[in-house]
Each structure stands twice: as structure tokens, then as C-alpha cells.
Amino acid sequence: MIQNMTRIVERINNIEERFSPQPKADPKAFSNMLQAAENKQTPEIKQRPMHQAKNRTENTYEKGSIKNMLVETAQKYGVNSDLVLALANAESGYRADAVSPVGAVGVMQLMPETASGLGVADSFDPKQNIDGGVRYLKQMLEMFGGDQSKALAAYNAGPGAVQKYGGIPPYSETQAYVKNILYDINNR
Length: 188
Prior knowledge:
The protein is mainly alpha-helical. It contains nine helices and two strands; from the N terminus they run ααβααβααααα. Strands 1-2 form a two-stranded antiparallel sheet. The termini are far apart.
């Protein structure tokens, strides 16, 4: 009960932060926006409804070609490709058409605000989504000194939550998320 109340209070604080006016000249605006979205969760993923599907070949990528894009993009940005593959598997099962109930989209499950801040115009385009997701993961790795556990927790729950708790937040979903991805990496 107390844990649920704590989550509710944290969510209210997150919402208040999201709608607080941001100074226009703030060079850390993107970082602040990411922190405001700190309570991002990755609940059950569902497939994009057919009536929303776009007539494009990008939405029909095979799992193998998605994995190749993930590895190439990881190499491009100097991020461990096993980490990127495990994260994409946990986020979407490598599905370009994945949409979570909270609105996270694509292979790397980018929230619209995060995608916009990363310059991703179409989160359903796997190339753009993967590029943005890997860049975001790299930012989290840099922010947390290369600590994969903290970077993964930040990818899932937001960097503000990791900073607030000085490590993986006490959210059962985030703790399981980090544990599962690290297990996947170690068993490749």
C-alpha cells in the first residue's frame, strides 16, 4: 500500500515537472525533459493496430535485418552491440510496429517526447527508431559513467529516477528489466 502511494506521489511530481515552464535559453533543456519523463515504464507491448499501419516497407522488416541494423548502429556510436540487442529484445522483441499502452513506439520503444528530442521524425521507421534509441542509450551510459545497470535503469525509468535513488530505482519493473537484460547479455 505504501509503495503504491509512493509511486502515485512520484507520478504526480513527474506530471508537475513535465508541465512546468522551461526556460527557453536553457542549454540543458533536453536533459531536463528526459528527467521529467523519469517514470517511463515498459508494460506489455501490443502490436500497432492495422488501421494505423502505414503502407511502407519499413514496417515489414524481418527480425534478422532489425538485428543487423541494431549491431551496425551500436558500432556506429561505440555502444556494446550485445547490450543494444538485449535492450531491443526486452523492449519490443525486435518489432518495428510495437506500441506500448503508454505510447512507447518501435523497436527501441521511444516515448514521443524522447523521440522528438532526439530528432526522430517517424518512430515506426526502424532505422530512425534504432538510431535514436542507441543514441539515447549512449547518453545514459555517458551520464552514468559507463555503468550498464544504471544506464538501463535510466532507459526504463528515466535518468532522474536513477539520480534520485543513486542507482536502480526501487521499482520492481525496472529492477526486473535491468536483471533480465544483463542476464541476456551474459548468456549470448
